[in-house]
Amino acid sequence: MQNRNAHGRLSGHALTNFIATISATGGLLFGYDTGIISSALLQLRNQFHLDTLGAEIVTSAIILGALIGCLGAGSISDRIGRRRTVMIAAALFLLGTVVVSSAQSVAVLIIARLILGLAIGAASQIVPIYIAEVSPPERRGRLVVGFQLAVVFGITSSFVTGYLLRDSSWRLMFGIGMLPALILFVGMAFLPNSPRWLALNGQIEEARAVLRRVRLSDEAADRELEEIIENHDVQAPWSELAKPWVRPALTASVGIALLCQFTGINAVMYYAPTIFADAGFGQDSALLTSVAVGVGMVFATVFGGWAVDTWGRRTLLLRMLPGAVVALAVLGTTFAMHLTGGIGAWITVAAVMAYTIFNTGSLSVAIWLVGAEVYPLSCRGKGMSLVAGSHWGADLLISLTTLSLVQMLGAGWTFWLFAGVNAFAFWFVLRYVPETKGQSLEELERRLRNGTFAPVDRAVARSEARAR
Q1: Which domains, from first to last, does the chain contain?
Q2: What pLDDT score does 246 carry?
Q3: Are 154 and 20 in contact (CB under 8 A)?
Q4: pTM of the model
């Protein structure tokens, strides 16, 4: 039995790592396709004679597509399975990349970006769920965070690619995305279905077979399957998400999704070159400094992937968010006092880097992980659709209003406003976000049902117990 378990441990970990790696390619495409437009747009403006409105429409089409894609993917994944839904997203990535790379008109560009958005939205909704439902509780955090790591690596790759190909064709910038899309599509064809989706659809022996492939032993797999069956329920309608017992999960996950955007990370990422140029750096230097921001995001996400399973999800958020508040307060001060050039420019760079690390290493790490963990199996797909929809809706709002905020309030007050939102995020996590480290998805569902899910609910339960 000892040798058999040792073999099972090796193959189980190897398979879950392979599943997480192939699935996370969807995150790589997510990051690359959203980030590359910032470099490609410089050439697109000239070739297609885009005015400001045209550039905004071409840029925003991908966000609108993502919003539609994530809301539709939940029902599709519940019906045909997580794996097949990821394959559909991969096919859309391929189609969108081919169309955008060969576009001869603005209309085709917009349609292609919309298709890529559908793929990104579907991937952001379903890939974290698929990884979470296959992973063991003790490794679920770092494996799901691998998706976010792939996203920030894709963003950084787009910054580097845009800089290196700044004198080449924009078609090549977009076309590079075909390779990871093909890897995702072919790789998913060889991966197993989610055991929890199989069990939910009555395919118990198929679920057992998958669990035995990805767990340390057959006994561990069988115990987990019994727990899944014990909590087994039919697919629930959208209205289930509004029921009081599910509401704490909705509050925690959607709250993190909204705050991930409203705390300003994408605003800083989108406009980092502009921020650095205003601080006194030349255009090329500003672009290179933006690459440094992307590298900082990668390292912060790697750290977060370690911390979510070592410190815990909630603890990570509470330890990192105060650093983001301080960094934004400093950034706002440098702009309010017009400290550009010389030492002021380097303080600005340090503040942007610090904010990026503290925010990316906390909220950006937690958004897809917490969303994939907290919902009951019967409405997990639909719940994650709302998480992804909240993320993309807030992203669209932030991308459309950041420059207006800077013009209306000034850069200093804008960054102070973001600092205040980060402080609010700390309070929100303290009150509404539970610790999910090391707990099975079924344990978290039981906490929802017995009313001890959110920290505030558990505090009330303890007070009532002492009173009795």
Answers
A1: 1-191 (1.20.1250.20), 240-468 (1.20.1250.20)
A2: 94
A3: no
A4: 0.83
How far apart are alpha carbons 280 and 335 in whole angstroms? 12
Helix or strand holding residue 322 (H, E): helix 313-336
Furthest CA-CA distance within the chain: 74
d(CA 391, CA 303): 22
Look at residue 467 in the predicted model and tell me its pLDDT.
57
CB 255 within 8 A of CB 44: no
Mean pLDDT of 373-387: 92
H-helix or E-strand spanning residue 412: helix 411-432
pLDDT by residue (tens digit) across 414-448? 889 999 999 999 999 999 999 999 899 999 999 99
- Name the percent of the chain in helix, strand, coil, to the closest 5: 85, 0, 15
CA gap 331, 420 in Å, rounded: 13
**Taking the CA of residue 336 as centre, how many other CA atoms within 13 Å lie in the half-sphere pointing to its CB?**
13
- Side-chain-side CA neighbours of 257 within 13 Å: the count stands at 26
Q: What pLDDT sits at residue 407?
A: 77
Average pLDDT of the residues of the chain: 86
All residues at 6 or more sequence positions from 127 whose CB lies less than 8 Å from its CB, including other chains: 23, 24, 26, 27, 86, 89, 147, 368
Asked if residue 305 lies in contact with residue 153, where contact means CB atoms within 8 angstroms, the answer is no
Tokens describing residue 373: 């963990």
Range in 10-14, 37-41, 78-82, 123-127 the model is least confident about: 10-14
